[in-house]
Records
---
Amino acid sequence: KEEEVEEKKKEEVGSCQSEPPAKRVRLEDLGQDGESREDAGVVEKEPAERKRARGQNKSRPCMKPNPYERSRLVDVLTSSLFFFKGCAEKCYFGARCRFLHDVGEYMAAKPADLGRSCVLFETFGKCIYGVTCRFAQAHLGDGYRNIVNADLAKQWEGKSLVRNNLSKDLQHQLRKRKFNFKKADEYLRGLAKPHGNGGKGGKATGRSTEEQEVSNCTTHQEGLGDSPKCPALPEQGEDPKPDALQSPGPTGGEEASSVKTAGPVTDEDMIKLRSCEKRKLEIQGKLYLAPLTTCGNLPFRRICKRFGADVTCGEMAVCTNLLQGQSSEWALLKRHHTEDIFGVQLEGAFPDTMTKCAELLNQTIEVDFVDINVGCPIDLVYKKGGGCALMTRSNKFEQIVRGMNSVLDVPLTVKIRTGVQEKINVAHKIIPKIREWGASMVTLHGRSREQRYTRGADWDYIAECAKIASPMPLFGNGDILSYEDANRAMQMGVSGIMIARQVPVGALIKPWLFTEIKEQRHWDISSSERFDILKDFTNYGLEHWGSDTQGVEKTRKFLLEWLSFLCRYIPVGLLEHLPQKINERPPYYMGRDYLETLMASQNVDDWIKISELLLGPVPTSFTFLPKHKANSYR
């Protein structure tokens, strides 16, 4: 028997060796996933033919000039008012410094100025970028001195134009993890405790009866003020007596000694606000500019504010990046002084990071509300459990909303979609829960995650959800491109409308839409008026990002991203019927003048040409591809 088994093994080995060459696959021909290169090539070719121009340009080239300037000037000389002679002694690094210390040498190698007038000098009386400004001839005197208009500069002295900046001290605390998250830690400890009802400690549903009474007070008696049925109760896991009464002596340890006090003790220090006593978000009937990733920057919001936007919101900020003190993420929270009703939008997937981030912002920045992004459809966010994925993770969703609401002194709002899958709407089930958890308002985008920004928004479903959400305000979002669309939306019973985003609709295509809605008219805006809007955006960008080479190129980048949407606007005078509808892509057409034709072009080179009219010639080897493939035509 053993001999028979050995003979069978030999036959099997021989049959494997005698296989025809077509069946054998060499290891070097296999990819990482075990498929042959030939098969992989076939698979790649098929979607290339069927693939539509949609989604992100993930492989687009890096557009940051590297470096912005080959010969940089030392910072101490950038905006100095003194002569450059002898300044090398003032440099901390001395002879080891790799920057230039001779202003004359720097000016000889500096590219030519882009214009004769500097917007910073004309607006504020001085330019902090000095000799590095690309419009420096407007404010440089003899010996490269930086001229200052004393009368104009005095008018702006002491005024804070942009708020919510990240200080170096706060950044250091966040990076060293020394920031005190007292309220958030209390709430998270309550989540970790096992509850008496046999539920898991991580579930937010295991609340005490006292907390349920407080939340019911918020839900049913909102806006009624003080009531004997709504007692002021401490948070979960907190002793009703204040810490100051429990330990009058210096026995609080390090935690008590680190608390700095200033001035007399007020009622707010001793008594916590109840949910029904929080500041109300009264924006019903107002025009709300949605948080727009990439394009919803501060200069763009200033443009929309000038045209009549009532409520503005910063770009989506990732909570983990904010907790790490990343300057680029904190820049998304900046608020211009003209934004009277302003909020920030946070994205996250877990209650610990979201609650801590909410407490951090509550203590450090000035906002009127905080919004949770539960509508982001992109894979990068969805696969980590954030954005639309929270609609399917109700336990974590509840913990996030309750936790953020417990640490915030300002209203908390939530932005959601109809659902994840195209034909399965779940928003009507989630909205009553959001109201119970303590949110002040919900914004509903009338599309699912699978639809992204394609097809029409389901306003009938939004109207149904508005009735379910009552008395909590619900704002509708989707397909608002004219005042007729806005009127039709308001008749659906929503509390207001949010004007957004990237499909051929909303503020990115025509920021003057706010004016049209308020004045109830179609504005046949001319190409010269539209060009003036681009000029204002450029000036606002130079104020915000700077007038040196780096600031100019950053302004150009965001201008080009916006132009990739502006080109979809069809002038009212050329339309066969009013108003313009969603996803109407006309054939190539000639405008009423050269500039209107240029602005209607979907060619990237034409967008670059418009940017050169405003910001001068682009750097050598400059390339640009828009963030979204639907906008990239060559």
Note: The first strand starts at residue 162 and ends at 163.
---
Amino acid sequence: MRKKKKQRLPPALLFRAAGNSELAAQIEERLIHQEYKIWKKNTPFLYDFVMTHGLEWPSLTCQWLPTRRTLADGNRIGALGGSSSNFAEQHELLLGTHTSSSDNAGGEDGGEGNDDGGGRSEMNYLMGRRRRARRGGGGGGGGGANPAAGGSATKEEGKDEEAGENASAPPANKRIKSSDGPSPKSVVIDAPEPASNYNEEKDELGGYHANAAAPSSSSSSSSSSSSFGHQQQPRVGKIDIRMRIPHEGEVNRARYMPQNHFVVASRGPGPDVYVWDLSRHSSGLASTSADDAATSSSPTPCPNVVCRGHTGEGYGMAWCPMLDDGCYGRLVTCAEDMTVRLWNVRDALSSNNAGGGQVVISPESTFRYHTDVVEDVDWHNRDINMIGSCGDDGLVCLWDVRRDTSLPPLHVIRDAHDGDVNGLEFHPINEFLLATCGSDRVVKLWDMRNLKSPLHTLEGHTDQVFAVHWSPFDESILASCSADRRIALWDLSRIGAEQSAEDAEDGPPELLFLHGGHTSRVTDFSWNPNYEWCIGGVSEDNVMQVWCPAEDVYAEDGDDDDDDDEEGKDPAMMHRAKILGDDELE
């Protein structure tokens, strides 16, 4: 139930496709389509809820904001019932756009021409999207701390049967614009019983969530047929745009500042790093359609602060996460120029807020040691002076920002992965634990007290791994996304646990769950800090998914909170204690 075996093509078919790239692409497309249909059928058994939303343009970045708002009356989002017990919650996501543009020079709106043939430059945007979902009623989900949201599997309007008949992955280097408007709304399909939402003609299931209410006969008779052949029900969840800010070029990455979530840093195709104070920008929703954009002049990107110093494009950046006063505005970035740079935007933001206009700043420090592209950086969660970086040279470097920049890093891991090191992240609680991922398709755990060899290697992806993120609510849970179109959840407490021969065929015991809802490679994902086990992810095929695995997936068999002695004798728990440790920062 936790994992699905990968389908294999017949050897004769593989041999025929080996010398024909077009045939191989068609076979891969059909395989992806078949895998998606199988995943769709199994959603009721694997998830508490799944929300699928079509984006106008693909997004390369995704991060939940820490905000949460309770809407007392469920009727405000069309929730079933409308009583005060049917309340809803509003969560917000930070996304970007990656458009196809022409005649853009100097790093502005980079691209290869518009797919619609209009010859028009498409503006990129930094966007805040709002997710609303009904809550209340019975049911699990969210790890017990929060009841399951009323969001279910969703289908976007105007994209008929795309999630079924035409669910194929676009080419990796193709950026496709949706033809159905800038913000297609999500239409909820309720499925109180799996069989009641099964479409025999298409041989797939429409959607499911744990707390779906049974549709009434009156509403079913009056509503129009959905794209899965079922009656559309009143909405219990939707995703829409809250803010659109013009951005120079595609948004490679965007991250909010922990001390003030209105302050957001972003990267584009140019070398500059942009810092925005969202509270000083309008929503930008007055004109959002493609027709309006064609008849009006393109808006001008106006970041509050420009960090200028890099000489190449980049993706990685991280804010100092601690809430101390000395951490406010401290930002670390990396780029293709093989450098890591440290910035402090605090004074620049104050000057801009005082009416000084856009402020351009230079880096406080520049760290040089990498010999190839620096892919990612992170800031230690317990040590205000420690940052980490990784790159295509196979190095993982740990820096002390107080040291002279002419000195080498404090610690260096050479050949950390067999190839490029794509991402790293420090553990939020354990000060000695570090996770990295690379092009060798694995995730590695490192003990910073002994960096000669990895503490453990997590194997389960079938293509290079792009990013790793620790869970904000459970210190033993880690997630990773990959070019294999999967988001994997890992439970370090299960390392070394006994497995049956059948379970071992599906992967190691620590591989808790594989999310297979994307039909193209996942570009970024984020844990929701206000909703346990809820993850939002974006992929190259213009799709954003918000989902929460079923409680049966992560609940331990035979949990007994009162039996502490037996838990201490569990080999898996003992191995977890060995990895995580009990050390606390003095």
Note: The chain has a mean pLDDT of 74.
---
Amino acid sequence: MTGLFLLSRRLFRGLLLRSTCTPTYAIRAFITTTISATRSSFDIESFVHPTLTANEHQRGTRLGIDSWADTNCAGKHAFVEEFVVDKFVTAGGFSASLGTIPDLPIANVLYAYDTDDSKTYIIECNNSIYLGDRMDDSLMNPIQAEESDVRVDTRPKRYYSDPHAQTISFPCGTVIPVEYDGALPFIPIRRPTADEIHICPRLVMSAKFPWDPSIPGGNFSQPRSVFSTSSSILDSVQDDPVGSSLMSLHLLSAVQSTSILHLHEDTFKSLQAMNSYKSKESISPEELARLLKIGLKTAQRTLQATTSKFIRTTGALSRHFKTDKAQLRYKQLSRIFGKFYCDYLKVNATSIRGYKGGVIYTNGLGFYKFLPCENETSETTGRTLRYFLHVVGLPYSLHSDNHGNFKDGLFKRLMRKFGVYQTFTEPHSPWQNRAEPAIGEVKKYARKIMMSTDTPIRLWCFCYEYTADLLSLLATARFDLQGRTPYEMIMHYTPDISEYVSFGWFQWCYYFDEDSKSKKICRWLGPAHEVGQSFCHWILLSNGNFIARSSVIPIPDHELESDELKRRTKIFMDCIHEKIGNTKVPIYNNIYPQRVYYDAFDDPVEDDESQLPYGEELHEAKLEDVNDRYLEALDNYINSEVIMPDKDGTAVLTKVKGKDWTSLTSHSCIQVS
């Protein structure tokens, strides 16, 4: 495209000297001829790279840097490593009167870049519009590169003394200089050889995750009215023939399936006033019917009910040979309950695993997943997202606040890579994020069970994970759940809660010690889902360490009442408090020891009342008051034989003779023989 820019500038000057038409019409006539001449259909199946002469191979070409080309454009010097088969675009000029170039494929292409010290790099420009021999030079969009963490600084050094000026910096630390041809920035490139593709190190200029220029992180492409179709292009730009010719040649593309150009009355509206596009099916019903040996109507219905998101290569096998749709390896969550929210939960006390907070994911339906983090950076929160995708699945969308750990870095790259639609709250509007009340609910329940069991505060990371998972397994009275659990609504199968009903939080247990070949006491810290076999548990030892074991059983209550167990449990807890107890953290208050459960989580004491997150629940059954209706119901037992305990508690068979109306309790109102 840069070559076209330079050519258009030269032709423009010639037209000024030899044409009697105005500069505007001269440019427009040239562009119309160019686009009309290149209009054709593209066939991936019979694709062959354009032939280059020996001089063209040696001389190479330019990779122009242009933010008005909203997607990378690859010319004939590009080496196509693979095509995105289900993505085609229709590109056009700045005006609908110029026509369009239909069926342009999206490709992942490679260029060779030679440094001054004779070192060669392979530059990957993924998601590029492939124009092939229609264009000598190629184009890169700096915003598309920035989205892949490649810093593009085109400020000329003649105006700026900054060492980063006129450079392109890659995440690996490699920096290549930007050159200028007049006022046009570029880097020199050429088509790589087969050996260079296999051997030379690679620099990723733009990543393989789906690129949509209409919704970048910086919101660069808002629709706006650019100009009237009846007015001249020079009415909307400066009276600069070179600038006008540059603007008129830019292409706009996107990789969605709906048009973004609309002609409404006399106003031409578009994203950045470029062009429109359309998608093309990757396979026809006839091809599918022949391939799968099925009927044509079945093939048509199958294509309507499924997608075919895959990469087809051009046949050049290499060690980088791989597919690009990573999200196909993961479960796709439905749109109904697949809209998730996330937020970071910060804790003042560092846990025994070194965590200082964590990310909570929720869908607003009562499903929670808490994943602890060492810090609040995007790298760490991004790892929690990867784990969430692996364990739960790909959400339809993810809503968060505007903090950098969710907007930048690894977290953003994973969102783009797996095609998860990301939205944000307005600044200073936490109520727009449903993860905020979810954090309060998890913290409230965790604080209650930690206080009731005198759990050391530094074990909060285990308790938060246990609490979030447990609340997802509770069938609440929400109408949306219809008596089912949030877990079942998301995972689509009835959960088994054996692990949660076999043990209680911080319960005293026995585990089998391999060293002494005997059972020892420990405390239960929740299921260890990612370790060992099923029914494996995290347990706390007397030395303050935690291990995962499946050979764990609860200690019966009557054994805990024995003097021996009381002595052993006291020694155990004394050791725990010495190692990781609450007195070891600076937020501990000797006067009000239980305040530590509030101070560590930044919660006011008034925030916690004696009720569980889903309202009051009955821990013990209450005896109903004796009334006339109850006493009348006892008539059915007269003259019947029942089993009742005697004075010693032994069960005996007795006969009901009558009722004692003077008795006020259900235990003594029946007379037995």
Note: The chain is about 25% helix and 25% strand.
